[in-house]
Specification:
The complex is a heterodimer of chains A (386) and B (243).
Chain A: E1 2-13, E2 16-28, E3 33-37, H1 44-51, E4 59-64, E5 67-68, H2 74-79, E6 81-84, H3 96-100, H4 102-106, H5 111-124, H6 129-132, H7 142-154, E7 160-164, H8 172-189, E8 192-197, H9 200-206, E9 209-214, E10 217-222, H10 224-229, H11 234-240, H12 244-247, H13 254-257, E11 264-265, H14 271-281, E12 286-290, E13 296-301, H15 302-307, E14 323-324, H16 329-339, E15 343-347, E16 353-358, H17 359-375
Parallel strand pairs in A: 3-8, 3-9, 6-7, 7-8, 11-12, 14-15
Antiparallel strand pairs in A: 1-2, 1-4, 4-5, 9-10, 12-13, 15-16
Chain B: H1 2-27, H2 30-36, H3 38-71, H4 76-91, H5 94-105, H6 109-133, H7 137-146, H8 150-184, H9 193-201, H10 205-233
Helix pairs in contact in B: 3-6, 3-8, 3-10, 4-6, 5-6, 6-8, 7-8, 8-9, 8-10, 9-10
The chains are: A alpha/beta (386), B mainly alpha (243).
Bound molecules: adenosine-5'-triphosphate and magnesium ion (MG).
Adenosine-5'-triphosphate binds next to β1, β2 and α1 of chain A.
Chain lengths: 386, 243
Amino acid sequence: MIELDNLTKVFDTPKGAVVAADHISMEVPPGEICILLGPSGCGKTTTLKMINRIVKPTSGKVFIDGDDTTGMDTQTLRRNIGYVIQQIGLFPNMTIEENITIVPRLLGWDRAKYRERARELMAMIALEPDAFLKRYPSELSGGQQQRIGVARALAADPPVMLMDEPFGAIDPINRAVIQDEFLKMQQALKKTIMFVSHDIDEAIKMGDRIAVFREGKLVQYSAPDDLLAAPKDSFVESFLGEDRALKRLNLVKVRDIVTDEIGTVSPGDTLENALTRIDDFGYQNSILMVNDHRQPAGIVNRSVTRTTKGYCRDHFQAVPAMIGLDDDLRKAASLMFAHDTTWLPCVDEDGKVCGQITQRAMTRHLGARFRARQGNAQNPDIAIKE
Amino acid sequence: MPIQTMKGALRALLLVAIFFAGVWSHSSGLIDDFLWYLPDVQYLMGEHLWLTAVSGSLAIAVAIPLGILLSRPSMARWAESLMQVLNVGTTIPTLAVLALSMSFLGIGTVPAVFGLFVATLLPITRNTYAGLKGVNPALMEAAAGIGMSPTQRLFKVELPNALYVIFAGMRTALTINVGTVPLAFLIGAGGLGELIFTGIDLYDPVMMLAGAIPTALLAIVVDAVIAFIAFVVVPRGVNPARA
Ligand SMILES: Nc1ncnc2c1ncn2[C@@H]1O[C@H](COP(=O)(O)OP(=O)(O)OP(=O)(O)O)[C@@H](O)[C@H]1O
Ligand SMILES: [Mg+2]
């Protein structure tokens, strides 16, 4: 656990005092990722660097797992905190292997153990050990260097990690890939992480909690969904962007709003039967046809059932799209737009139909929080300690 | 393509010229004249190298620690002004330095070594200091953030990254040192300067060249040797020569 208690940093500059961090108090529970978010110059890096004492706080305290770090030996403290700096900072005089094993070597691990660890780390960041370990940082792309920077911070398996825009130098496509890899890693490693970002989408994706900073002050500290649903003031609101409702689609899983009830027909049903079912369930245009294993087999259109006689198996169309329970609503919305439909069948891991998701259910779910907020102006978030 | 052919033609022309210069110098007896000085050259070259080796290694032994010391954060307040003083020191002609050191150390090897030492010290100190100060601050921050002690930072990060610049300083300084040793003859320390200055005094160009040409060759060899050491010693990742 990381706990900041009234942490303050004032820089004395020739132009006068700059308050880079102003009485920051917050807690990051063990095993969670906390994103420090805010515009350039708002004090994210400064706050982060006070945790490993690269920057000495002007006042206030940092506790790690309950221990006050103020009086600790800085070297011991830092060896137990993984640190990824904003400028990557790989040592150009060392090979990749030497770079990622530097902390284990400082800690006096034996050779066999740290070399083994190097290969393990490379697998973790999805880079081929044999191809990269003997290279020098200048022989890697910016994105590869950033991955190595993360591996170096993870090397001695520190319980706490500080990461300053660790994926900043990576193009959007690869960034998404690395973010996914990192989240998968985090599920297994359960580190307590402070992560600086100025990219809202990254914050929403990676963060268990998000701390929004403005001019050295912590403005709001909430879970991503709470932040998007209930921004505390107009600054946070404008920082999150006009499309914050859409951003929330990323956070909600189909599983959360799926309705189990779905009317279906089987290939052997008559079209007359199908029409009755469509009307019974109140469907507008069509009904899903499933096979013997309850897997989606086709769509039977209402217009067909009214004008034609026969069996469903002879008069169906292909299923335009379906969605898995663990997909997010963003994918669901995207599929609905792409196929001009207002509902999607949901399938489980075995491909069996287990319900449906409708546009109305989505809008209702997203809207609920906004209405709740208008109803009671208090924000429901974890209180910021004042 | 035309440039390539021109280069080729020039090279051929040069080789022909060298060949005829050789033929001419042999027929005119010049080579025999030079050969006559060979024993002297051998002996004086030994002295010459000895002066360079002693003054040079003393200078390296003092300059690198001095440069390191000046680059420490605790020295930041004085370092810049001290470097200014050193820079002014570099502009004093070596002959003047030798003269000064003679005036309080007398005549012979000791004042010569001392004068050469001072002249060699400055460029190495300056490059060591500049090289260490020039190490990317992000590397220093990463090193500190990882939990390296100041000593570990110096030896594992700062010095390896500054090494190429430090070697460049040694190359310059020692090449200049070799070229300056002839002046040491003027305060009685021997070396190839004996042939050069005596040759000048006696209006004997062959004798003068018998001192000057080996001096020039020595300077080139010393430069190449240090460049080779740098090539081997400086880690590949920060060695422009091996990029
Ligand atoms: N060493 C320093 N000396 C003086 N002022 C500083 C120093 N470091 C940071 N500042 C100032 O403190 C403020 C916060 O800087 P900080 O680096 O924490 O911002 P940031 O939120 O990380 O911004 P960015 O997103 O651009 O990295 C800025 O106004 C900056 O100019
Ligand atoms: Mg920053």
